[in-house]
Amino acid sequence: MENIFKNILRITIIICGLFYIVIYLSVGLYDLNLEGINLNLKSNHLSEQKKIINKDTELMLVNYEYGLDEEYKPKDLTIPNIEFTDEATDEEKHVSGIIVKPLEELVNEAKLDGITLLGNSGYRSYKLQKKTYGSRVMWEGKESADDYVAKPGFSEHQTGLCIDITNEDRYFVKGTKEADWLEKNCYKFGFIIRYPYGKKHITGVEYEPWHIRYVGKENAKSIYNNEITLEEYLKNNHIYGGLNE
Ligand SMILES: [Zn+2]
Fold this sequence. Notes:
Radius of gyration: 21 Å
Pfam family, one: VanY
Structural class: alpha+beta
Largest sheet: 4 strands, antiparallel
Number of strands: 6
Number of domains: 2
Strand content: 5-15%
CATH architecture of the largest domain: 2-Layer Sandwich
Number of helices: 8
Strand order of the largest sheet: 3-4-6-5
GO molecular function: peptidase activity
Organism: Clostridium senegalense
Bound molecules: zinc ion
Distance between the termini: 75 Å
Helix content: 40-55%
GO biological process, one term: proteolysis
């Protein structure tokens, strides 16, 4: 009698599991297909008007208007000698060769000030971004996903020039000593807080105190001192036409 009950329970669990997998896959594929249609429309438009600015340089611009194609990959991806979180995948530990030394210097300098910064997510391939975006849309809806996760091709992480930093508490928000240190000091090493507070109308992204982007020391200093974004900096230097132009 007990065995029959156990068997029924086992079969029920298996059926529920299979049902869950089928639903999960079909919803996921449906979302990605929808995105595929949108992206195709957008990239057709891009190929006519928005050519990537400063490709392969420290001032390369990737934002919601300027996207990279599926094949783009930085040439010299390297894992920097810094501490990473356990969640960081092997791919995400890589960054573009040009930022390795400045990043290591930044993390070491923080350490001297008693601040522990951990790498969380550096380079992300088009393929990984597609997966991340798709699952975010599925769990939180498109509106919330669009606020925090870029569509594949439109993430700066595909350039290898940026990295998300966190702290040991995995609570990297304004007011924590780690986030405040990073905001005040990263420009000295050629990095900027890429998505500052109150600049979403320019960057297209909500405030992200953890996302730093390498632009080189001179550029970073000027952006920091003038309290502007990369978009505004490029516009001021007549490299970029500005939004909606
Ligand atoms: Zn980021």
